[in-house]
Every structure is written in C-alpha cells, then in structure tokens.
C-alpha cells in the first residue's frame, strides 16, 4: 500500500511536459466517454497545473481548445473545457495495465516512456485514498475530510466500469470517490448540496466523507468521497427489470416521488427559496426558447418541431407568477436514484447537467424541473423496453407525482404550464445529449418531441 509522499510539485516545466503529452492526448482524450467536446475538434492543449503526487504519478489540469464548428449553432466561440487527468508514467506498462494505455511519448521530457490513465492503476488509486485520509496540500491541491468520519486504511480500489460523465473508484465496497473530469471554477454542487443536506439531517443522500480541490488556476472542486451504498440497484436498472418481467413499478415510483420531495424540502431549508414573478417567468421562457433554437440548428431533425415546442415556453412567459425557485438536483433521472433490495431510495449526483455552466447550475430553479426530469426518465425506460410500454410510463408518472404531492404538500401537476415547459426543455436537452453522445438513442427524445410539439 503506497504511503502519501511528502508534498512536491513537478520540477518539469509545464510547456515541455506538454510537448510529450499533447500528441498522445489528441488521440486519447476525444475517445473518453467523459470528453465533453464530442464533434468539436481539439486544436490545442494548455497545461494549467501539473502536480507530482508521487514520482511517475501526475495530477494535471489541461485545457482543450476547440475550433468553431461549421454548424451555425456552434459558430459562436466554442468554450474551452478544462479536464482533470491523473497520469501514470512508466518505462514499461505491465500487461494488466494495458487497457489504461494513453500512449508512448516520442518527444519532450517523457520521450521513450509510457503514459497511462493512473485511475486504472490500483497503486495510484490507493494513493489517492491515502491522501484523503491524511488531509493536507500538495502544490495547489488540498485534500480534506469530514473529521467525524473514519476512513480505514488499505481499502482495495476498483474503477467503476459504468458509462458516466466522470470517473468513480470504489474502495472496498465502503466508499466511492468521484473524480470530476470536466472541471469548472467554483464549488461543485455535487459537494455543496450533499454536504448541506447532510447538515439538514436528510438521510436520502450519501454524505460527503472527504473531497479534494485545487486553488489554481482558480478554486475548483476536483473529487468527492462518499459512502458506497452496497447492494443497491439504480432506478434505471430496476425500471427495466420491471418492464422486462411485466411487473408493476408504481409503488417504487410513488416512493421515489416521496424521496424527491424530501430532498427538495431539505434543500429549501438549507438555501432560501426565491419568489418567481413575471420578469422571472419571462426569463425562464426566453432561456428555454434560446436553447431550443440553438439545438435545432445543431440537430436538424429538431427543426420541424420548433414552432410546436415554443408554445410550451410561451405559456410560461404569460404567467404572472410561478411559485418559488430553490436549489434543486438539476439532472434528476432514474439512474440518479439508488435503492437496496430492502431499503429506501437515495439520490446521488447533484452535479446538474454536465453541459451547462456551473454558475447556471447553482442558480435557484423551480422544483418542478427535477420532477420533469424524472417524468422524462419513465418515458425513456418505457421506450427502450421491447415492446415499448407507454401505459407503464403513464402509471409510473402518475404514481411519482402522487408520492411527491403526498410528501411535499403540493402537487407538481398543479403547476401544469411550468411542468410541461420543463419537460419540453429536458427533451430538447436530451436531443442534443443523444446526438452528441449516443446517436442510437436519439429516437427516444425525438418521440417525446413529436408528442410535446403536437399536443
Ligand atoms: N454512493 C453510491 N453508492 C453506490 N453506488 C454509487 C454511489 N454513487 C454513485 N454510484 C454508482 O456510480 C455511478 C456513477 O455515479 P454518478 O454520480 O452518476 O456519476 P457521473 O456524474 O459521472 O455520471 C452511478 O450510476 C451508481 O451506479
Ligand atoms: O448521469 P449523467 O449525469 O451522466 O447524465 C447524463 O447522461 C444520462 C444518460 O446516462 C442522460 O439521461 C438520459 O438517459 C437516461 C437513460 O440512460 C434516462 O433515464 C434519462 O431520463 C435521460 O435524460 C442525462 O440526460 C445526461 O445529463
């Protein structure tokens, strides 16, 4: 088990390190599931920070610069994304680490050496946990933990093999560390909200046990460790099983509605809600319309439905008030809910929609936004079932809203215009998400678009 080494940053000049790494990253980075710039060629890399955690184990923050796309929607300057990379450097890669290979450097200070994804190396992964166990700083990186929580030494790491927007390591089935891949300045809501919820005594969310952050080039959260919910299945898996076995899911959907309401109530206690009057309803509608227009330019299949979809946003613009806005989950779907066989729902992944700027994700929003996200998810599940089962989705959607109303004291369906607009906005987001990440799935949100535009 590697021990945390005394702090030191790499002595290698940043520009020279990039001479070795840039040619490899050009090949490797766009292939990663968490690479956000799909379809936008990388023109250049800028090394923002390089920290040596151990000899041959580097922590890097790298900015990927993009060329503007030919598509009109992307003709505006394309924002550069900053990625967190944990890089291993060895003379030879042992066969067990072959899948982690990034490439063999041919130039610069690492010429002739093999570079690989260190999160796939159990030794490096173990060192990361060791750092979190023993708080302190290494260069711009700070490692911190909740003093109330004991993190035992020597927990065996394994990299989670699931499709995700970040990379997660499970330690001894006791803790899970999410390493954020796309880093934006500021506190990440996936640390901020679960921490606040834990302080409110909300048991629906695994409480952060430890985290690490950088102070350079700007303050940003880099990773969060939380208890691993052993033996839990996510709602997506459970929903698909229910569809495959033709079993009802309404009880689970009702309880999920209750769990969502509890999270919302605790968030409203932790972060004061604000009232939404006419200027705000107009602003919400304008932002949704803007996203719709931009998406229709990027994904031509959406274009014929734009005027039909706009009606939902115009109905919101016409509202004099829309209740309150508060901190919400921001990307709630069945995959973000976990449930042990004999337990109750927990909610994870408070990062919000990864494609949106952090400042936007941290803004108060109407809670029906989360409800709309989950309603879309029931629709997704029913569409991927063979044969598709719209009746299943209808019953789950109703049960989920019933459960929410029972716990929150207000029924999200009463805010009909807002709910419809958020469902439409989510379907539009999904069209872009699927077009960029999983083109085979595009028919699922497109079916919802046709329905929402035509009704
Ligand atoms: N506390 C936890 N306990 C058990 N499994 C978890 C926990 N947190 C996350 N997971 C698993 O890790 C997966 C990825 O986590 P998530 O927070 O959704 O990452 P991402 O933001 O990268 O998509 C989830 O789908 C879930 O299966
Ligand atoms: O879980 P993430 O934070 O990475 O969220 C992104 O990926 C999700 C897919 O993994 C995507 O969710 C969409 O597909 C789900 C089924 O795979 C479905 O349940 C959701 O309703 C649907 O939105 C999510 O939108 C995206 O942000």
UniProtKB/TrEMBL annotation:
Pathway: Glycan biosynthesis; glycogen biosynthesis
Protein name (database record): Maltokinase
Xref: Pfam families: Mak_N_cap
Subunit architecture: Monomer.
Keyword Kinase: yes
The entry's keywords: ATP-binding, Carbohydrate metabolism, Glycogen biosynthesis, Glycogen metabolism, Kinase, Nucleotide-binding, Transferase
Enzyme Commission (EC) number: 2.7.1.175
Domain of life, source organism: Bacteria
Cross-referenced InterPro entries: Kinase-like_dom_sf, Mak_N_cap
Keyword Kinase on entry: yes
Top-level class of the enzyme under EC nomenclature: transferase
UniProt record similarity statement: Belongs to the aminoglycoside phosphotransferase family.
Domain Maltokinase N-terminal cap, first and last residues per copy: 28-121
Reaction catalysis annotation: D-maltose + ATP = alpha-maltose 1-phosphate + ADP + H(+)
